[in-house]
Amino acid sequence: MEKQSLPKKPRRLGESQLTLPVTDNQFLRCADLILPWLNAPELAAVSLTCKASSFISRSITLRRSLDAARSLENLPVPFLNAVDSKRYADFAYTPFQIPASSSPQPRQRWGGGASDAPASQFEMNVVGESMCGCECERCEEGYCQCLALAAGAEIVNECGSGCGCGSDCPNRVTQKGVLVRLKIVRDEKKGWCLCSDQLIKKDQFICEYAGELLTTAEARRRQTIYDKLRSTQQSFSSALLVIREHLPSGQACLRINIDATRIGNVARFINHSCDGGNLSTVLLRSSGALLPRLCFFAARDIAAGEELSFSYGDVRLTPGESAENKLNCSCGSSCCFGTLPCENT
């Protein structure tokens, strides 16, 4: 019996006859445009879709682990982890203080084939700058007359955007970004730690504490959220720092809240040490700026590979207080209190 061939099902308009072939190169170009904007969980999910996506996701993860600073600093700051499978910490990078972001999950290109710096929305220092500064027009032979004015001051002053001198002025030490080699190392107890990757001399500038500037109300709201996250996620750690600048009268103080949990710089990885650590903290104000910045300098010579640390403060829970928000200290110093400094925001 002769078989009869069934009629072919007609293709609808918009199906394969109108589908353009997509080459591997085109796919790679599209992926390189989109995938670097994904956060770590999203990138992990995409890597499971196909072999090509898995390959691209792995290359992005590798590039992210090579530079936490996203090319926004003078030198790359790599992640090194011999403890677990976590390759990097996921956060948006800013070298400066910035206004608080209302976005629950800030996005920033990171890990693309080309430099990520031009795509960053956090390149400009937009907080507290005005066009009021010193009258220096130029600095000759490595000397700036503003240095004499700053001698003996409780808060160090630097030339700012309103000054007539240029970026090579010797009174702009902290405005040139990170100029020493650093690395972020995973520790079994502490998590991520910021370490020196070279010999750092005493009084050498390391970095400033950069992040979102919050109102006190917003700082308290976020701290409540962070406390809840820490109680449910053992690996979660916040980087909300409260600074109090006491006024000369002694009757009041200026409170500054800097949150580097979601958006910050390498300083968010500096851990506490009960013995004061090897870093000194300096409140520094640029000419014309409303708010000071917290900057870190080497308190002594720091050897290559040594962890960087400072004291978070002296306020701790007393035996009669609730230990609900108590955080264990793992600094390992001979005078360790066993708990991290804790203070209600």
From TrEMBL:
Main location: nucleus
Record domain Post-SET: where: 325-341
Top-rank taxon, per record: Eukaryota
Compartments in which it is found: Chromosome; Nucleus
Gene3D superfamilies: SET domain (2.170.270.10)
UniProt cross-references to Pfam families, sorted A to Z: SET (PF00856)
Keyword annotations of the record: Chromosome, Metal-binding, Methyltransferase, Nucleus, S-adenosyl-L-methionine, Transferase, Zinc
Stretches assigned to the SET domain: 180-313
Annotated protein name in UniProt: SET domain-containing protein
Gene symbol of the encoding locus: A05p053990.1_BraROA
